[in-house]
């Protein structure tokens, strides 16, 4: 087995041919560049896309990128990309179920006295504004964190149940099936009765046993066993306690009448197999499931995953994903326009400190002080508990539950008959954003439209199919591909939080790193931008080094930040970053660009 760098694992290639029905040509190219015994599997609806596999770790990261450039150069090949299981690099090491109090203490140790003063003043202003709003009847009651139903109250779920699901024989969300790609399931009393195990699949071991072994993998650096059970519980757990857990707590899901299908795709939520996730999404679409709730993600994109997303949405599947936890940008697949990206809010209706944020966020939902079901293995015995935690991993399934309420209330078959299947995800997304609550001092361009309101959503009239413009996903892939191009938009997304005030700094730093000028930069990024973005996504030290360069540039006078001066006078920080790249197994093509060699 070849040792890989960046703690990533090679899984295969994605190849797109120039026109349909070129499978034989694709196989010929693969055999010529990669050798015999590689599998070439058609995917998607276009008859132009193929997944190329042999064995995991068949190539090192460097070898994979070298072969990618060779594949791209072949006649008939429009694009080729390597597939990796990639780590999500956190800007602050944080377990997804770490108590909120510990987070606050840790944050305070790294906060300057000036930040504390400004934070205090900001809190005073918020209290003043909130008191005025409360006096005017504009704010809701203050919820308590020890109330196990506070998230449902915040989302106005109980009001939605009462108004739109009056039949006591049909629980809210009835008739809806939610696919749940995650770490698998356990027999926790809070979820077991609402699982459709006969419909599930394990993409890790390629069998039908989706059980979470609750053990850490030897090959994955960061693991969260039991994550699938916990995130499922906030969707489908029946009302009230299903067992005695010793602390008087329980979980009630947003859509207790819905059914959930476990699809095991990973040991860990922070080392994502894009191939497994893509296959799980296609599996869910082929099975006719209605919603996909994704509480995992990675910092690196690929067309293989997006192809699967479009494939599912053309069949009317609503896909909801977590924006990321302790990541400086919105992760994938949440960052794709076709996916509803959910960030995390707090009990005080603020954005949660660890939530990934940015322009790609659609909405927010509670993600702090969340009560959830958890199964742990202690000395070989399974123990079922109710714990409290945090993370966008909980925010996304809460919204998936709201989606189940919406589909159940309107009737999915009726919606398909009225609009066609492929428009349903986009109609839901539009109504979801339009009916959100917008708290005081909310930033829509960072936190999404607001905090989801289930009552308003179900009360909202459906759009006129004639007068309202809804872009179906069949065209979305062609219209919204810049974020995965490896060009400037890709890096603008990855470093959005660092260049809010001056987007030119990003271009300047990229040009300096690649030893080029303003005119030549787009061309160079077209060639090697995807690999460079991959390096930033999976290497936290490199990412932080680049942000250091951006910060240094911002302190300079504007007249000194010109493309013309960058090529001849690279900074020490930029040289350090270039050396880091050269030492970590990059392709020969990227090596030449960094060294400005032909």
From TrEMBL:
InterPro entries: Peptidase_S8/S53_dom, Peptidase_S8/S53_dom_sf, Peptidase_S8/S53_subtilisin, Peptidase_S8_Ser-AS, Peptidase_S8_subtilisin-rel. CDD domains: Peptidases_S8_S53. SUPFAM superfamilies: Subtilisin-like (SSF52743). Keywords: Hydrolase, Protease, Serine protease. One of its GO terms (molecular function) is serine-type endopeptidase activity. The active site is at residues 182, 227, 393. One of its GO terms (biological process) is proteolysis. Residues 173-412 form the Peptidase S8/S53 domain. Belongs to the peptidase S8 family. PANTHER family: CELL WALL-ASSOCIATED PROTEASE, SUBTILISIN-RELATED. This is S8/S53 family peptidase.
């Amino acid at each position: 087995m070849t040792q890989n760098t960046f703690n990533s694992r090679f899984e295969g290639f994605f190849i797109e041919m120039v026109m349909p029905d070129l499978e034989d040509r694709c196989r010929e190219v693969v055999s010529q560049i990669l050798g015999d015994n590689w599998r070439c599997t058609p995917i998607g609806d276009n008859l132009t896309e193929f997944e190329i596999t042999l064995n995991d770790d068949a190539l090192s990261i460097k070898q994979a990128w070298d072969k990618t450039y060779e594949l791209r150069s072949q006649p008939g090949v429009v694009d080729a990309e390597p597939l990796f299981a990639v780590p999500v690099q956190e800007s602050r090491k944080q377990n997804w179920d770490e108590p909120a109090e510990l987070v606050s203490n840790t944050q305070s140790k790294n906060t300057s006295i000036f930040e504390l003063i400004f934070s205090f003043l900001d809190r005073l202003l918020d209290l003043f504004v909130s008191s005025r709003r409360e006096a005017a009847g504009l704010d809701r009651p203050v919820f308590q964190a020890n109330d196990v139903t506070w998230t449902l109250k915040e989302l106005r779920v109980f009001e939605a149940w009462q108004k739109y699901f009056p039949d006591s024989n049909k629980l809210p969300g009835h008739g809806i099936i939610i696919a749940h790609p995650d770490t698998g399931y356990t027999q926790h009393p809070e979820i077991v009765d609402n699982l459709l195990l006969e419909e599930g699949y394990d993409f890790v071991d390629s069998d039908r046993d989706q059980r979470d072994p609750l053990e850490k993998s030897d090959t994955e650096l960061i693991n969260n066993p039991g994550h699938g059970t916990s995130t499922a519980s906030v969707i489908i757990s029946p009302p009230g306690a299903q067992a005695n857990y010793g602390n008087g707590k329980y979980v009630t899901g947003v859509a207790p009448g819905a059914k959930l299908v476990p699809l095991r795709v990973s040991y860990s939520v922070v080392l994502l197999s894009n191939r497994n996730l893509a296959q799980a999404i296609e599996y869910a679409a082929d099975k006719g499931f209605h919603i996909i709730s994704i509480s995992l993600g990675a910092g690196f994109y690929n067309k293989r995953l997006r192809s699967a997303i479009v494939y599912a949405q053309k069949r009317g599947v609503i896909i909801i994903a977590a924006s990321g936890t302790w990541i400086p940008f919105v992760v994938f697949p949440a960052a794709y326009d076709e996916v509803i990206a959910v960030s995390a809010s707090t009990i005080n209706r603020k954005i949660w400190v660890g939530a990934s944020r940015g322009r790609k966020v659609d909405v927010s939902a509670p993600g702090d002080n969340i009560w959830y079901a958890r199964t742990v293995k202690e000395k070989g015995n399974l123990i079922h508990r109710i714990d409290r935690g945090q993370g966008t991993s909980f925010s996304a399934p809460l919204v998936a539950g709201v989606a189940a309420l919406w589909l159940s209330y309107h009737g999915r078959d009726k919606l398909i008959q009225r609009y066609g299947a492929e428009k349903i995800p986009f109609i839901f997304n539009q109504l979801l954003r339009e009916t959100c609550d917008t708290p005081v001092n909310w930033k829509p361009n960072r936190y999404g439209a607001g905090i989801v309101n289930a009552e308003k959503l179900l009360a909202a009239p459906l759009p006129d199919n004639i007068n309202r413009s809804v872009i179906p996903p069949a065209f979305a892939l062609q219209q919204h591909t810049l974020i995965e191009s490896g060009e400037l938009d890709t890096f603008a997304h990855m470093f959005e939080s660092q260049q809010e005030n001056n987007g030119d700094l990003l271009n300047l730093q990229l040009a300096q790193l690649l030893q080029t000028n303003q005119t030549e930069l787009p061309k160079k990024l077209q060639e090697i931008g995807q690999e460079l973005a991959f390096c930033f996504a999976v290497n936290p030290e490199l990412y932080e080094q680049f942000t250091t360069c951006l910060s240094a540039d911002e302190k300079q006078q504007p007249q000194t930040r010109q493309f013309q001066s960058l090529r001849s006078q690279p900074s020490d920080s930029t040289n350090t970053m270039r050396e880091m790249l050269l030492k970590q197994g990059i392709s020969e093509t990227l090596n030449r660009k960094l060294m400005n060699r032909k």
